[in-house]
């Protein structure tokens, strides 16, 4: 049995990636694909328990270095319990956030050195990197306005301030520049149907 396809969706707050994760999964299943939909932090029982520690509380509850250790602890369990078994079974895995969020949030946004992050990633993720990463991009002010306007203010990260989110956006854009072999930048401006069309075009181009 051939290994499944691993797709991740990334981006800052309010970019609509969670909605597009759901839509992509529905579309793939409509084509007859066996798809596991998951998320980070979370995606397994242990990782969901860690998620409650990471996303709740005041913005400065954890230092960026502590955050990233928690994120990779959750990611380790998520990989062991959910992602690797699904890929081994030939399923497609579509994940709302993965390791690039650590590079952007704790790295570009929080100042954790890239070498430290990559050392963690090499030990935890190793060869199970995504086959395709869709990075959703919006101007920071637009994304935060969407997040607040739609009542999506649910985690510590939305409250970290404009400067943080500006660094975060640039971090995601740099990831796309550094990894063109697996990353596609998705213009997240416009209605949900228009963005879905861009997502589907990217998935077809990279996985067919």
Fold topology:
Layout: E1 6-11, H1 17-30, E2 35-39, H2 45-55, H3 64-88, E3 92-96, H4 99-109, H5 114-124, E4 132-137, H6 140-149, H7 162-178, E5 183-187, H8 192-207
Parallel strand pairs: 1-3, 1-4, 2-3, 4-5
Helix pairs in contact: 1-8, 2-3, 3-4, 3-5, 4-7
Explain this structure.
This protein has 208 residues and is α/β, with parallel strands linked by helices. It has a single domain, classed as P-loop containing nucleotide triphosphate hydrolases (Rossmann fold, 3-Layer(aba) Sandwich). The chain is built from 8 helices and 5 strands; from the N terminus they run E-H-E-H-H-E-H-H-E-H-H-E-H. The chain has a 5-stranded parallel sheet with strand order 2-3-1-4-5, sandwiched between helices. The two termini are 18 Å apart.
In short:
The chain has 208 residues and is α/β, with parallel strands linked by helices. The protein has helices at residues 17-30, 45-55, 64-88, 99-109, 114-124, 140-149, 162-178, 192-207, and strands spanning 6-11, 35-39, 92-96, 132-137, 183-187.
């Amino acid at each position: 049995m051939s290994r499944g396809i691993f797709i991740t969706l990334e981006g800052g707050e309010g970019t609509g990636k969670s909605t597009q994760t759901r839509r992509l999964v529905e579309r793939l299943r409509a084509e007859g694909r066996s798809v596991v939909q998951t998320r980070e932090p979370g995606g397994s029982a242990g990782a969901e328990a860690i998620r409650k520690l990471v996303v709740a509380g005041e913005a400065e509850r954890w230092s960026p270095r502590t955050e990233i250790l928690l994120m990779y602890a959750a990611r380790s369990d998520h990989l062991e319990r959910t992602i690797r078994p699904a890929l081994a079974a030939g399923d497609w895995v579509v994940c709302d956030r993965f390791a690039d969020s650590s590079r952007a949030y704790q790295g570009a946004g929080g100042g954790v050195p890239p070498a430290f992050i990559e050392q963690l990633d090499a030990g935890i993720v190793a060869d199970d990197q995504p086959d395709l990463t869709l990075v959703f991009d919006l101007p920071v002010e637009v994304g935060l306005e969407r997040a607040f306007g739609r009542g999506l203010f649910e985690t510590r990260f939305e409250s970290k301030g404009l400067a943080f989110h500006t660094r975060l956006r640039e971090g995601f854009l740099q990831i796309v520049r550094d990894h063109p072999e697996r990353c596609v930048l998705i213009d997240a401006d416009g209605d949900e149907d228009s963005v879905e069309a861009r997502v589907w075009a990217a998935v077809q181009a990279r996985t067919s």
